[in-house]
Here is the input.
Amino acid sequence: MPLREEFAKALEKGASGGGLDREDIITLLQALPGEEEEGLFGLADKVRQENFGEEVHLRGIIEFSNYCRNDCFYCGLRRSNREIRRYRIPLEEILAAAEYAAGLGYGTIVLQAGEDPHYSGAELAEMVRRVKEVGNFAVTVCVGERSLEDYQLIKEAGADRYLLKHETADSGLFSKLRPGTTLAERIKRLNWLRELGFQVGSGNMVGLPGQTVETLADDILLLKELDVEMAGIGPFIPHEQTPVGDSSPGDLGLTLRVLAVARLVLPKTHLPATTAAGTLHPKGRQMALGCGANVIMPNLSPASYRALYQIYPEKAGSKEDADESHGKITSLIKEIGRSVGSGRGDSPKDKFRE
Ligand code: SAM
Ligand code: SF4
Here is the structure.
């Protein structure tokens, strides 16, 4: 089927670097399989290539605690889930994982956890400081909503980036799915992080129950407004032990379209090929890398903890050890003719150049 006129116009606008408005974004998100999707994905791939070349940066992730004070409807780590065994990885094991990453030449370590009040700001800062002593890493922290003082301590300890996904730009849906929390508070923190000098990451899930294509367009526009350095966009995958466990998973095609449109709107923003995309489909991450993504986050958590960090079931890599995860990811990058990025892979924006 030939391109519909309205779609062709929006794509043309995207190709000429013209600012896509909300209507254009909605049109592009509804690309039909065949020529329209091929046109959209091909353009996103070209924009990725022009801005980041063929390098795929690896961000080694250590999931250091699965305790969480929150009760997000979509997440298996929610506090009401009594079926999982909770853990905190001792600092020495975190440092051993960081050393392993240093040996393999990783440029970034991501320290991620549930919102675990067990850790004070000072303890998180100490963790960052110790990890930074292990190698010449950029450190990303991803531990949810904390006080301004805690973010300050983490920054002073040398953290370079902070990842706090806005999850959904629909404020009603946000508070429904994340009881006791608001989108406004989340955005306030993203602004604090920006002011503190972090490279800021945010992002959203695709296919949340109650989400519409208009919401997804608003997600992309919010990421643009926040001017993020990284945007994690991945499919929602239902977890049995949650209130939305019976919902359908996010659609991989729609996830790829959101990623591709995000690449057009945010040409210089790092976009990961998410583990969730790799969980939905065995080639999900390769497909994402062909639609604008330029980053992958291999799991470096010690094998004994992995199965317990069950945000959603059958998470890709949860039965592997760090060697296997690293090997699989480097070969998938090579398979598609790309190369593993060198250095820290900072944001290409002028203000973050080394
Ligand atoms: N607790 C911190 C937070 O919420 O920001 C960081 C850890 S949290 C597990 C990391 C990310 O997991 C969230 O930002 C969310 O997008 C994602 N996530 C949670 N449940 C998910 C699900 N069922 N499917 C896909 N992604 C999910
Ligand atoms: Fe906790 Fe984050 Fe999961 Fe929400 S998404 S329950 S804050 S770990």
